[in-house]
């Protein structure tokens, strides 16, 4: 009986760890410190949604060719 309890307890700890680690990883990327990846990408002068605008004439774009077509 004691061995069964120990297996259940260790399985519970492992399962809890499997859920907690990814959640903590997600939240660690939401910090506002200046050493993060967002500090190197200065987009303060651009309006929200600028990525959805058509490229300017002469601007480099990427074209991906697949067996199902190009995009």
Explain what this protein looks like in three dimensions:
Helix content is 38%, strand content 6%. The chain contains one helix and two strands, in the order H-E-E. A two-stranded antiparallel sheet has the order 1-2. The longest helix has 27 residues, at 2-28.
Task: Considering the chains and any ligands shown, give keywords for the structure.
about 70 residues; two-stranded antiparallel ribbon; 1 helix; about 40% helix
How are the elements arranged and paired?
Layout: H1 2-28, E1 65-66, E2 69-70
Antiparallel strand pairs: 1-2
| Overall average pLDDT | 75
- Global outline: elongated
Order of helices and strands: HEE
Strand line-up of the largest beta sheet:
1-2
What is the number of helical segments per DSSP (H or I, 4+ residues)?
1
Low-confidence stretches: none
Number of strands: 2
Give the CA-CA distance, first to last residue. 61 Å
Please describe the biggest sheet, giving its number of strands, its sense, and whether it closes into a barrel: 2 strands, antiparallel
Radius of gyration: 24 Å
Provide the β-strand percentage band.
5-15%
Structural class: mainly alpha
Helix content percent band = 25-40%
Outline of this structure?
With 71 residues, the protein is mainly alpha-helical. Helix content is 38%, strand content 6%. It is built from one helix and two strands, in the order H-E-E.
């Amino acid at each position: 009986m004691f061995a069964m309890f120990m297996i259940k307890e260790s399985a519970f700890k492992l399962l809890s760890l499997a859920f907690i680690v990814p959640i903590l990883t997600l939240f660690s990327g939401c910090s506002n410190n200046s050493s993060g990846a967002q500090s190197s990408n200065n987009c303060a002068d651009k309006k929200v949604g600028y990525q959805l605008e058509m490229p300017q004439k002469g601007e480099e774009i990427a074209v991906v060719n697949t067996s199902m077509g190009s995009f």
